[in-house]
């Protein structure tokens, strides 16, 4: 009988890499991180969505589901290639080392990226120019709209196309768009070149990771941002009126954690329109992500069974309705296009109903298990049947100490009440100072086929290392950065030893 492959990985978004330019990039630090994973015998690297971020800087509210975040482009590589002066890269503001200050980073990097793209347009060698032209040809179906959209965001000083932009632009009147493309041709090409830089650098990073035996887990938010090129250029695929404004928004209903639920505000899909187009937009979305990654985690997977739709004008999510989604038809179409074995992880956290489980299980997708959700205590006793406890995890699942939406494991443990903290220590059989490593150990020894720990847990950081607090828009969200990519040797050796002991070397 063929043994089941078991793997271990680390969650680390590229923005969190250390670098001299205020934000992580796809340069030396990306390759150093891959070397670090290889040294520890980890075979998975999980990231967050790679799209260009807008207001709030959340990768889950990107301005495009197909474009890459230009702020991740490595300036040093562009200087090596002759598109920037070395002085431009060597002399930079004194950025904080532990956090991304997005405004300062944009002020510094965006002019340099425009300068590099302009130099490329003027001076690129014939071979490089031909490669670029091939990139544009292959990606024209999304690239031209994205480049124009970014130009218009700057022109109107606002990304809210549905409120601020002139009506003919908002509704994409043909003659108007043709004129805008002609008028802004240089700026549009500049943005297309920047996307070429991003995709070229990312392809090199992915190739290096795969060569080292490491697969990359990407991420797709189920919904798109309202102020995105996707919503603007594909209004027919969303529930919008003839004036381009949403008639309904996404969210989740009230629950034990929120009396008003959560009103996310994303446009919801007109699934009938998607069916008429044979889910072509969604298929392209999955296809494009699989070019960039090896595995996809789909955020809010339950939305493919049913989603919470809130009517226009509501201030909270209370008065919403569960609406059916054609998940079975969609995944059937996706399999017909990409094959039966889809490398998808279903984010199935929260209140999950039988139809969601059936959709996930029938397609063979692993669900997610979060250790921080495992320690439910009632009347002083740990619930040994909690499905998130390592001994209860099924093989076809991916177990995490925590995700980008959780506190770090150390921060989480330090916030527990005395009773729950005692249950954690008794389950793990360890004192306070070993809780994080014992969580990692039990996660790796679980039956789950894949086990992922955030980089912050490898470093045993406290709450100061938290990546995101859901339903907030604070300056600390999405901004954490590692001080360096050289953990003390014992941390590398300890994780390596646990990976070997638990048979998670991925081979």
Automatic annotation (TrEMBL):
Regions crossing the membrane: none
Reactions catalysed according to its record: Transfers a segment of a (1->4)-alpha-D-glucan to a new position in an acceptor, which may be glucose or a (1->4)-alpha-D-glucan
Principal EC category: transferase
EC number(s) given by UniProt: 2.4.1.25
Matches recorded under Pfam families: Glyco_hydro_77 (PF02446)
Keywords carried by this UniProt record: Carbohydrate metabolism, Glycosyltransferase, Transferase
Coiled-coil ranges from the UniProt annotation: none
GO molecular function, one term: 4-alpha-glucanotransferase activity
Record-linked PANTHER family: 4-ALPHA-GLUCANOTRANSFERASE DPE1, CHLOROPLASTIC/AMYLOPLASTIC, 4-ALPHA-GLUCANOTRANSFERASE DPE1, CHLOROPLASTIC_AMYLOPLASTIC
Name of the protein: 4-alpha-glucanotransferase
Biological source species: Sphaerochaeta halotolerans
Lineage: Bacteria, Pseudomonadati, Spirochaetota, Spirochaetia, Spirochaetales
